[in-house]
Every structure is written in C-alpha cells, then in structure tokens.
Amino acid sequence: MTAQSGKDLLVKVDMDGSGQFETIAGLRATRLSFNAETVDVTSLESTGGWRELLSGAGVRTAAISGSGVFRDATTDERARAIFWSGELPDFQVVIPDFGIIEGPFQITSIEYAGSHDGEASYEMAMASAGALTFTAI
Asked: What InterPro entries does this protein map onto (predicted)?
C-alpha cells in the first residue's frame, strides 16, 4: 500500500434510510478507531501463571470522530437531526486502498466553535450502535 492523502478518508451518512450515502460536508480531519474488550479467564491452573483470555468474548466497538468547517449543507442538517432525535442511521467510512466500514452509529457529540476573525468550525463524535461490516476495495 502506498501513502494516501488524508482527504481520501471519507465519512458518509445515509441521508434518508434508503442507502443513499453522502460525504459529510466540511470535514477536514477524521479518525476511526476499533476496540475489543477482553474477558480474563486466568485461574490458578493457568500455565506458568500467564493470563488467559476467552476467545471470541468481549464487546467490540468502533468510534468515529471528525472536525471541520461549518458549511450549512444538507449533511450538516442531517447530522443535527440525527443527534437531536437519537436516531441510529448507517454510516460509511471509506478508507482509501483498504475498504469500507458500514453500520449503525450514534452521534454522541457535536461541538460548534468560532472566533471573530475566523470560520465557524465543528467537531463530531460517533459510537458504533450495532454490527459493522467490512468490504475490501
């Protein structure tokens, strides 16, 4: 895999529940993280006192965060509506030359900021809310 431009990592939202995804407007920086909790099953009988983990157990989560400039586009309006309604729509994260992660996410925070001599900006965070799929590209 060769180096990729950060602007090619896209976060898209299902606009109306029909599977029509649009890139969230104004994003300048995005981040996707995956986590898996462990279930420790170590006992006095564990070989050499080494910790043992239960395979396939634990909770898996994903988180998306991003920041950008406020553009008052239809995707901005959709994100606000999702937050206020508590809806769990599907999102897509396109990772260049790797794949697409898709599934339901909850918008857990939206922060708006601005200064008198600059553009309005925002930060948004999302947490996975169900099973995610991966499609290689």
From this structure: GTA_major-tail, Phgtail_TP901_1
Hey, what are 69's tokens? 């400039």
Strand partners, 106: 127
Q: Where are the alpha helices (DSSP H) in 1-137?
A: 74-85
Domain coordinates in residue numbering, the chain: 6-136
For residues 78 and 93, the answer to whether their CB atoms sit within 8 Å is no
Q: Which residues make Cβ contacts (< 8 Å) with residue 39, sequence separation at least 6?
A: 53, 54, 57, 58
Query: What's the CA gap between 121 and 71, in Å, rounded?
Result: 9
Protein fold of 6-136 = Pnp Oxidase; Chain A (2.30.110)
pLDDT digits (tens, 9 = 90+) for 22-35: 999 888 899 999 99
pLDDT tens sequence across 32-64: 999 999 999 999 999 999 999 999 989 999 999
Its pTM stands at 0.85
Instruction: For residue 46, count other CB atoms closer than 10 A to its CB.
Output: 12
